[in-house]
Structure formats: C-alpha cells, structure tokens
Write a structure and sequence with these properties.
- With 291 residues, this protein is of the alpha/beta class.
- The protein has helices at residues 53-56, 59-62, 94-107, 120-131, 164-173, 182-193, 199-210, 240-249, 265-268, 270-290, and strands at residues 13-21, 24-33, 37-42, 65-70, 114-118, 138-142, 227-232, 254-258.
- It has one domain: Alpha/Beta hydrolase fold, catalytic domain (Rossmann fold).
- Helix content is 35%, strand content 18%.
- The radius of gyration is 18 Å and the shape is globular.
- The termini are far apart.
Length: 291
C-alpha cells in the first residue's frame, strides 16, 4: 500500500435536520459550506442536492455566502415520512412545496436568505417572492418560467414494466446543453437514475399543473424581493422565451440567457454557470451591505 495517499475532504458539512413538516416528522438531509448571507439552493424535480456540488465548493462564493442545500422529503438522503406506504401516490403541490421551504428556513433560523432554485426550484422561488417577499433577501430562478405545457406522458415515469430510474434519465437527457462535459453530463443523469419510484412523476404535478403562476406573477414586488432569472439557451422544458416572458411580467426582474447551457446549468456546466452567477451574488452582496 502506498504511503502517499491522494485524498482530501471537501469543505462541505452534511447533517440531518429533524423537524415537523406538513403535519409529519421528517429527517431532512442538509449540506452547507461557507459563511455570510444564506444562499438556500433548491434542486430540480426528481434529483437532489448533489446538483449544487460546485457552488458548495467554490471558495469565492463561500467567503461571503453560507451555501445551504437540502434534499426535499422523498429525495436523495431525505426519506419519506413514516407511513408513506399508506399514501396512494406521492404528489408535490404548490402549498406543500412552499411550506417545506419555509419550514426548513425557519428551523435553520436563516436571516433574509437568498433562495436559488432550478426547474421546479426556479418556479417555486417565484411563489416565494410573491407570498413571502419580506422573508427572502432575493430569489434567483434558474430555468424559471411561469408555467409549462405538458409535452410527454408522465405515466411512463412510474410503470411496473419500465425501469423508473433509466426512463427518468432518458426523459431529461435531451435537456442538457452542448457545453456540458461527458463527466458532468453523466453525473447529472446518474442523479435521476437513483430517484425513488414515482418521485419524479410526483414532482411534475407541481411543475406541469399545480405550480402555474401566470395569473399572479405580475404581483411580485421586486422592491421588496429582487428577482434574478438565469436560463440556459438549450432547454425545451423552460425555453429562453419562457423565461423572457416571465421576466416581462415581473417589473424590475433581471434576466440572463446563458449560452451553451441547458436545463441543469449548475451541474452540467458548473464553471460556465458560476461565471453568470457571480455578478448576481456580488450585486446582492452590495445591496445587503447597504441596507
């Protein structure tokens, strides 16, 4: 055995947070790194916090931000609550999604956190900005649109004659942009291959049906909660036009279309994504120092 082992720990701490959510006791897995302004990261449908590995490990970000990412219940290392087998099916609603995020934020006693989410996370941050503008210092929506028209049969995502993980990865594989390396592409897809039965399908209930915010989005007040939207150009689930349409309805929203990226910018092209994210975080930092 070699005496010179090439090994090191990352500066990321993972812990379990025990708390009550939606009337049940939950054990939620939370990762964090850094110090300063809380940056609460919300993963995509059917995946988990591993998507934010590059943000958690970026020293330029963590010197000013306490980056926090958690696995939603049923996702990653956050198991379903006791008695989950009694449920007919898992289905994420707008109300439950907001309540989960607010519950975690309050349990961690976060002071004016910045909420950054992608896909379903990008949609829910618009709900947060509308419903809880004074709780959040800002929201950053990645691949965020006000709604999406269904474009495939979600029944394929949970069938006894189909490998659930592989079909989930197959569905999202076309959403990854050409700037992704093979390593990052396949790590992003691996997260989808590991999802629990029916979880991706249940998340899409929020994304495709219950989370439609078109009729309310114009009421978001960016003077109380600034809104930043960053979207990759290679995305037919939330197209650049979908993001631009959402931004046009939110007075004061700032929008960036990221070239070469797809639906998972933070995991498929971490370096390129951080180049776009850094100016947004710097602007939020300056605003926070001036308040």
């Amino acid at each position: 055995m070699s005496s010179a082992v090439n090994a090191s720990f990352e500066p990321v701490i993972g812990r379990y947070l025990n708390l009550d959510l939606l009337g049940k006791r939950h054990r939620v897995y939370v990762e964090e790194a850094g110090q300063g302004i809380p940056l609460l990261c919300l993963h995509t449908a059917g995946s988990d916090t591993r998507q934010f590995r590059a943000i958690l490990n970026n020293a330029d970000i963590t010197k000013n931000y306490r980056v926090i990412a958690f696995d939603l219940p049923w996702h990653g290392k956050s198991s379903p609550p006791a008695g989950w087998r009694d449920l007919e099916e898992y289905r994420l609603t707008s109300r439950d999604y907001v309540d989960i995020i607010m519950g975690v934020s309050e349990a961690l006693q976060l002071d004016k956190p910045v909420a950054m989410g992608c896909s379903i996370g990008g949609r829910i941050v618009l709900h947060l900005a509308l419903e809880h503008p004074d709780h959040f210092g800002a929201v950053i929506g990645l691949q965020a649109g006000a709604h999406v028209d269904p474009y495939y049969d979600t029944q394929w995502l949970h069938r006894p004659d189909v490998h659930g993980g592989e079909v989930c990865a197959g569905v999202v594989s076309g959403l990854i942009g050409p700037s992704a390396t093979e390593e990052n592409r396949w790590e992003t897809l691996w997260h989808y291959m590991q999802g629990g039965p029916g979880v991706f399908k249940g998340d899409l209930y929020f994304y495709k049906i219950d989370g439609d915010i078109r009729e309310r989005i114009a009421a978001i007040d960016t003077t109380r909660c600034p809104v930043y939207l960053l979207s990759g150009e290679y995305d037919y689930s939330c197209s650049p036009q979908d993001t631009l349409d959402a931004a046009s309805r939110i007075k004061g929203a700032q929008v960036t279309i990221m070239q070469g990226m797809g639906h998972f910018p933070m995991s498929e092209d971490p370096t390129g994504f951080i180049d776009h994210l850094a100016p947004v975080l710097e602007e939020i930092l300056k605003m926070r120092k001036g308040r």
